[in-house]
UniProtKB/TrEMBL annotation:
Lineage of source species: unclassified sequences, metagenomes, ecological metagenomes
Domain ABC transporter: from-to ranges: 23-97
Protein name: ABC transporter, ATP-binding protein
TM stretches of this protein: none
Pfam families named among the record's database cross-references: ABC_tran (PF00005)
Amino acid sequence: MSPSLLELRDVGKVFGDTVALEPTTIAVDEGSFVAIVGPSGCGKSTLFNVIAGLLAPDSGAVIMNGTTVTRTTGHVGYMLQKDLLVPWRTVQDNITMAARL
């Protein structure tokens, strides 16, 4: 059996005294559709930021295609719940803006 496309092994995140993400384990196979749902403040955004490499986990490991992710790779992206577009810019300018910052 091939390794999962994405695997989280006891991934957790703490900010000071606040546990933002309890140790979480999940495996996502290629072609799967996964929804992460929960109330405000339960750790969904923290989970996505750890998967994307924008935050380092305080415990556990993020594994993509069999390789442990320790930093941003540029191979992961996700859509935020708010569009955050700059309305006076073109679509192309909005897409490429991050590369210019």
